[in-house]
């Protein structure tokens, strides 16, 4: 493959963190091995296989439980500074409760961490990437307030066992999507608790994050010297008509409902005022006995405010919003009163229909975060592209090129304090409800092969080149068989 990258002079800072990410349920397999307990994803795929697009599951996935050394080698050869992976809670404690620990599960992550450190790759641990132990779900899962204490105790075990070597922690990956799994049957536990469950689960996730953060700060930080944050996901919203004050206000409101929901409590304390106002009003209209947006106590506000050592976020795509519906088919968010659409010039046939490349959306988002939260250190903890799995993945290369370029512009022209960029994902893996139909890897995994053979794609060579040079303005000759 030969790809011309737009010529430009900007360079990534020397200490810029480049890396790649995975998540336990999506890659590990070994779902019931060595004492691991059942989690909500095991439960969902086993009780309702028909809900997964292609009927696949994560029983074996990439078999990384056995092949982690190969994965680390692939990360090494890619030249990344860090590898972001998640820990399977039910591998550490089968029921999720910390009175019974699973030594083999704890040992697995010790081996993985040591392997990374031996190869000079910084481990970044996500504590929770969507795989709640089923026992805790049977207790109600994230809509039960006690879950924040179970999470804190789980975090304590991780700090104790791994904190001597792990200096970067993400408590929770994408609380927004976790809440959707409770409210709108999008993911496990596949419940339809609607907006009440939406706001309640999010509330408890935020408190859980706050408790884990404070625990680290009070008990571990002075000796372990690490950093800790929460990975906040979300689309970025732009006004459909950039000249319309209505649309501008609507886009701002949409961004507060999508991103401010989790960021405002951490950076400013409490929910965004616009959410409080709109949801309280709507609750009243609907006659619920109290607002379905729960209220933090003063202590909880203090617990959560300031609970991030850097701003971690996952970002993939952008939408236009308007207050007035233009298209009757457009998605309408009734809580926040906005209609969603897509710019015609963006239209692209993506295997993942939601993943419309809008590189400038990332740049606008970085500027938005900078202005809204006083330019915190911003760490892109996921960005990547899904396709059908071909090795000559030019669409992925052009997607990453666009988003990396947008990042460079934000750093050099907009003074955004961006410190890291993470490609999702190192490997093709189990893409939740889409099964293995959509592939995100820089490395192909052959799921028909019991060995789960791994083969680097063109994008692997592309990203390696960016990491090695810090540049985008080079003619890149990629021989993906030869990387
Ligand atoms: C991330 O979520 C996850 O952290 C990761 O595990 C996953 O593999 C990766 O992205 C790729 O998907 O709401 O109709 O627009 C990304 C956020 C949000 C993407 C919900 C899919 C569903 C389609 N996800 N979205 S829609």
Automatic annotation (TrEMBL):
PROSITE patterns: GLYCOSYL_HYDROL_F1_2. The keyword ATP-binding does not apply. GO terms for molecular function: beta-glucosidase activity. It comes from the Eukaryota. The keyword ATP-binding does not apply. GO terms for biological process: carbohydrate metabolic process. Keywords: Glycoprotein, Glycosidase, Hydrolase, Membrane, Transmembrane, Transmembrane helix. Homodimer. Belongs to the glycosyl hydrolase 1 family. This is Uncharacterized protein.
């Amino acid at each position: 493959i030969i790809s011309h990258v737009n010529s430009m002079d900007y360079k990534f800072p020397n200490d810029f963190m480049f890396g790649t990410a995975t998540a336990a349920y999506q890659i590990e397999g070994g779902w019931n091995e060595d004492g691991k307990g059942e989690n909500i994803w095991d439960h969902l795929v086993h009780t309702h296989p028909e809900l997964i697009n292609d009927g696949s599951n994560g029983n074996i996935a990439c078999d990384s439980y056995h092949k982690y050394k190969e994965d680390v080698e692939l990360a090494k050869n890619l030249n990344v500074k860090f590898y972001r992976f998640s820990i399977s809670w039910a591998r550490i404690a089968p029921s999720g409760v910390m009175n019974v620990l699973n030594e083999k599960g704890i040992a697995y992550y010790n081996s993985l961490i040591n392997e990374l450190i031996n190869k000079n790759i910084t481990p970044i641990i996500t504590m929770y990437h969507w795989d709640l132990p089923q026992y805790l779900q049977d207790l109600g899962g994230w809509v039960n307030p006690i879950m924040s204490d179970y999470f804190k105790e789980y975090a304590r075990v991780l700090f104790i066992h791994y904190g001597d070597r792990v200096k970067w922690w993400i408590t929770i990956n994408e609380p927004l999507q976790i809440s959707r799994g409770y409210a709108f049957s999008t993911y496990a536990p596949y419940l339809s608790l609607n907006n009440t469950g939406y706001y309640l689960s999010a509330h408890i996730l935020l408190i859980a994050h706050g408790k884990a953060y404070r625990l680290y700060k009070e008990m571990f930080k002075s000796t372990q010297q690490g950093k800790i944050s929460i990975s906040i996901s979300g689309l970025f919203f732009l006004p459909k008509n950039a000249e319309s004050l209505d649309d501008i206000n609507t886009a701002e409101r949409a961004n507060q409902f999508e991103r401010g929901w989790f960021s405002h409590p951490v950076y400013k304390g409490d929910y965004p005022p616009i959410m409080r106002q709109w949801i309280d009003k709507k609750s009243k209209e609907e006659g619920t006995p109290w607002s379905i947006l729960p209220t933090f106590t003063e202590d909880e506000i203090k617990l959560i405010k300031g609970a991030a050592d850097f701003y971690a976020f996952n970002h993939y795509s952008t939408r236009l919003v308007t207050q007035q519906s233009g298209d009757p088919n457009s998605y309408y968010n009734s809580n926040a009163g906005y209609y969603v659409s897509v710019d015609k010039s963006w239209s692209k046939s993506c295997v993942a229909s939601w993943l419309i490349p809008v590189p400038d959306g990332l740049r606008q988002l970085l500027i938005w975060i900078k202005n809204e939260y006083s330019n915190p250190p911003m760490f892109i903890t996921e960005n990547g592209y899904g396709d059908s799995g071909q090795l000559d993945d030019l669409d992925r290369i052009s997607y990453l090129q666009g988003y990396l370029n947008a990042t460079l512009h934000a750093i050099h022209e907009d003074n955004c304090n961006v410190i890291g960029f993470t490609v999702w994902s190192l490997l093709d893996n189990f893409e939740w409800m889409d099964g293995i139909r959509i592939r995100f890897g820089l490395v192909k995994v052959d799921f028909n092969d019991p060995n789960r053979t791994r083969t680097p794609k063109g994008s692997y060579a592309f990203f390696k080149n960016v990491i090695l040079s810090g540049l985008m303005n080079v003619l890149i000759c990629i021989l993906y068989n030869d990387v």
